[in-house]
């Protein structure tokens, strides 16, 4: 039976349509599972290879004209249209309101108790109504894309990341490297706006967590779904993603009163105003074309003032958690490899010592043989000398004998 193809949902151990709360503890915990199991699942896609190939920015045509981002995930960030074999899934990224705090009454109370500074602030005042933000990811299988398209929401922007072939070596992918040699950096490189490489799952998680930490409350005029979608799109997409024209700014008191006026409440039921015509796209960051809630200049300013640094911190935090978990999982293998390497080194040392001892014995044998040869040569020389001495003595004796026989004159 053929193995089931890897999808984003199988990778994350989630069912299609699962809602993942954007939380500094929850999201890293969800990512831990695929990262810690990857070293033992050699035949499965490593989660570091799940990369975002492009972002799509959507706005609902009716109701509150909710805005959200669809992040398309493929193998190594290859273009979605490469084929089904590289498609992993889609993540819907959005800011919502907890169900217990939802409803017109709470929204209107929050509006009436909110101040409207140009730059968002998290300060509170007595009597202010706070609505906790419900930032979330919804994960879908590639097979769900048709259903997502059929929603009929306005497709406002598209940003494609640049895929490189071959892809770079990913920091937390230990495959092809011995556990002993696997040593990912303690800190991962920060992601600037100019970075056009496909973001990782932990890049996306860190960006969303940073926005949630900066603005944990849902503010109708400051930190709502428009703000979250625009900030996330800009944070991940870099500078090119933001070059889409400047929106109007500012909320006038007349507009606020119009919202609070029951005869024309912007937060009333969908039936009070007809949806935008299919041929006309609503504007990003605006509510029913009445006013602009999120201006692009404000997005850029807030990114520089708060979001960039917060994103860097959260990225290091999420990456650090995953790195520590991966290293912990690989620790037994690393220790086994180190023990094996130590045993190999000891065997090599013992073999070297044996070889040295053998060589030393050989040298000693050679030296002994040389000494014996020298002794033999000395004995032979001594024997030769004795023979020579004996010969000389015989010659002397013969000379004396001849002299004795010679008549004297």
Question: How would you explain this protein's 3D organization?
Answer:
With 409 residues, the protein is an alpha+beta fold. The chain contains eight helices and nine strands. Strands 1, 2, 3, 4, 5, 6 and 7 form a seven-stranded antiparallel sheet that branches. Strands 8-9 form a two-stranded antiparallel sheet. A hairpin with a 7-residue loop joins strand 2 and strand 3. 31% of the residues are buried. About 13% of the residues have low confidence.
Layout of helices and strands:
Elements: H1 8-12, E1 18-21, H2 26-37, E2 50-59, E3 67-75, E4 87-97, H3 104-112, E5 131-140, H4 145-149, E6 154-160, H5 201-214, E7 217-218, H6 225-242, H7 253-260, E8 286-287, E9 291-292, H8 296-405
Helix pairs in contact: 2-8, 5-6, 5-8, 6-8
Low-pLDDT regions: 107-113, 115-126, 244-278
Number of strands: 9
CA gyration radius, whole angstroms: 41 Å
**Tally of DSSP helical segments:** 8
Helix content: 40-55%
How would you name the oligomeric state of the polypeptide chains in this document? single chain
Distance between the ends? 134 Å
Strand count, sense and barrel status of the largest sheet are: 7 strands, antiparallel
Averaging pLDDT over every residue, what do you get?
81
The class by helix and strand makeup works out as alpha+beta
Key terms:
single chain, 409 residues, alpha+beta, 7-stranded antiparallel beta sheet, two-stranded antiparallel sheet, 8 helices, 44% helix
